[in-house]
Specification:
The protein has helices at 2-31, 40-64, 70-94, 101-115. The protein contains four helices and no strands. The protein has one domain (2-115). It starts with a helix and ends in a 12-residue tail after the last helix. 75% of the residues lie in helices and 0% in strands. The radius of gyration is 17 Å and the shape is elongated.
Length: 127
């Protein structure tokens, strides 16, 4: 059951991080002078794609806690490690290793997801 709690916590933190990313990023984009001005909508929509994928990943992590298939759980965790790992590394590099909400939150999402990867009480390998 601890694995299920880790997956649910990971998914919830992923959604919170995505909302923070979307709100903060949108506020910062509004302050920028993007030329030509007609492209601001495109730039804002493109920026939010990351937030939407992080929310979807968080929902999948929460749903994975209720899945009976360890195969599906492992695939969701693997996908999440990639989806959150790439920006976590980017945030870490951009902040030059200094603590920042971005890379710490995303790394925590990955760690919790990996802890919840396999539920030892489940023995089925159904897809």
């Amino acid at each position: 059951m601890k694995q299920n709690l880790a997956l649910r916590t990971s998914g919830t933190l992923a959604i919170i991080t995505a909302l923070y990313h979307g709100i903060l990023g949108d506020a910062l984009l509004c302050e920028l002078e993007i030329h030509p001005p007609e492209h601001i909508t495109f730039v804002r929509a493109t920026y939010q794609i990351g937030s939407v994928s992080w929310i979807a990943g968080g929902l999948l992590l929460i749903a994975a806690a209720n899945m009976r298939s360890s195969f599906a759980r492992n695939w969701i965790v693997g996908m999440s490690a990639f989806v959150y790992g790439y920006p976590a590394i980017g945030n870490f590099m951009l902040s030059k290793g200094k603590p920042s909400f971005g890379w710490i939150a995303l790394s925590t999402v990955i760690l919790l997801a990996l802890l919840g990867r396999v539920d030892p009480t489940q023995t089925t390998e159904e897809a």
